[in-house]
Amino acid sequence: MARLRISVNLPNYITMTRIFAVPVLIWVLSSHLFHGADGRREILASALFIVASISDGIDGYLARRRGQITTLGTLLDPLADKLLVTAAFISLVQFNPAVVPAWIAVIVIGREFLVSGLRSIAATEGFTIAASDLGKLKMVVQIVTVVAAILAHRWDYWYFGRFVLGVKLIAHMAVWFMVAVSMISAIDYFVAFWSKIEKSSTRRRKRRSFILRRPQKFGVPPGALPDRPPQDK
């Protein structure tokens, strides 16, 4: 009896660590244990999210560099990304609704489900949709948005001598920019998906047409060929 072997290597361990960081992030943002006027909860949550996000690039780099791309890693890596982003924005709806209202979270999470669905359909059709530059930009903007929204819960401004950094203003601007990039990248993915689906359908129609026309090439009408060769009597 064949056994299913699951290879767990260093890149996969990093990916699973990112998954385990999701409930920790939710706990830090929702728990009163870290509540304080010094903003330690916001700093801890921001640092945790930044480290988890950076690990996304590290595990992929190590997997390619060490030749350790596995089926488990291919499954867990996008799952970890979706869980981290979804958990962060759902938590922010409660943690800082003034910056991240519920409809923002719906757009962000809906976009993630849309792209995942398109990639699943593409896989069943025998092709893949590569990550675009807009998709990579979207990920960077999401990281900035989440961190800014967390910090804006505690601070409106940061003062560095005569220089003043508007934390809340940056958070609001990042949210709107992220929504725009998310929508544009979703359209970009859909256009790429539709283009490949059309090409795949065209190839299938041509192949089917060739098979149907093949008997006529030899002067035999379609359907006239016997199912099996006649046996000698």
**Rg, Å, rounded:** 26 Å
Task: Kindly report the spatial arrangement of strands forming the biggest sheet.
Answer: 1-2
Mean pLDDT equals 80
The H/E string reads HHHHHEEH
> Which bin fits the share of residues in helices?
55-70%
Number of domains: 2
Oligomer: single chain
Sheet/helix structural class = mainly alpha
- Poorly predicted runs of 5 or more residues: 1-5
Query: Main beta sheet, described?
Result: 2 strands, antiparallel
Query: How many H/I helices?
Result: 6
**How much β-strand is present in the residues?**
under 5%
Count of distinct strands: 2
Specify the overall morphology: globular
Written description of the protein model:
The protein has 233 residues and is mostly helical. Helices cover 69% and strands 3% of the residues. It has a two-stranded antiparallel sheet. Strand 1 and strand 2 form a beta hairpin. The longest helix is centred in the last third of the chain and has 47 residues. The radius of gyration is 26 Å and the shape is globular. The N terminus is likely disordered.
Quick overview of this protein structure:
With 233 residues, the protein is mainly alpha-helical. It has helices spanning 10-30, 40-65, 71-95, 102-124, 133-151, 167-213, and strands at 157-160, 163-166.
Topology:
Elements: H1 10-30, H2 40-65, H3 71-95, H4 102-124, H5 133-151, E1 157-160, E2 163-166, H6 167-213
Antiparallel strand pairs: 1-2
Helix pairs in contact: 1-2, 1-3, 2-3, 2-5, 3-4, 3-5, 4-6, 5-6
